Amino acid sequence: MAATEAMPGRKLGWRQSAAGDYLSEFFGTFILICFGDGVVAMAVAALNQSGRGPAIFVASGDWLIITFGWGFAVAMAVYVAGGVGGAHINPAVTLASAIKRGFPWSKVPGYWASQILGAFTGAALVYWVYVNAINSYDTAHHITRGTTESIPTYSIFATFPAGYFHNWGGPFLTEAVGTAFLVCFVFAIIDEFNQPVKANLAPFMVGIAVVAIGTSFGANSGYAINPARDFGPRVFAAIAGWDKIAFPGDYGNVNTYFWIPIVGPLVGATIGALLYDLFIRDILQSRGEPPDESIEPGGRTAKEVPVEEF
Length: 310
Known about the structure:
Elements: H1 18-49, H2 60-85, H3 91-100, H4 108-140, H5 151-154, H6 169-189, H7 202-217, H8 227-246, H9 260-286
């Protein structure tokens, strides 16, 4: 049965329209944030407040837990939502897909809105689950929420620049570079003219790509590399009491920061898409390389249909 065919007796209605894609993007991004913000909550507040030790691995160990947690979060989100609308779960990926892969521009606003709302909802669930740990951490460290002292618990939800920056240039560059690599890797993983990942391992490899970016380019700006991943939880953090730390993003060394994890990734995604096609896909196509017919558009592995026995 083709993926677009309705099961006998079932009326799909709106599910067959773009609304179904938007709903899947909402749910995929919700899962991404639940597990991405969730692993940061574990590292920042829960483990050291739960009686399982005063600290975990400190600095490098914390970062490894966080980067791998985000990688797994991306992989699981794409596995869950990928069969419906492609599981962009990232406005930057949606933009790059519209620019270079024929994704309908008419769907871009709906995808972006769904991704941001899913991210906001995921952040709300993480806060609900970990509010006691967060409050305990703040109390133990004499932190007043909404001041620069509260950046550690705020960082559960959204990103901030490293203290060695004193303007937006460095964080912006880092976000653009990280997202350019992300889009480059995603395009490579699903490129039917290159060496596409098979056996339904594409979502896992996208997660590995996120780990690679986080371990190599993460410390400067927290590697948002996804406007929805930062903006949705940032809105929630502002509502939950982190105030100017969330909006406009005042961290002492860099002010009015909130726009950098939005614009930086969108610029980087555009550059990454253009560079991948310039250096790889256009060359493969110009050489007449045949597409891998086992790969469906969007990177999904073709499903084998059993032959009916007569």
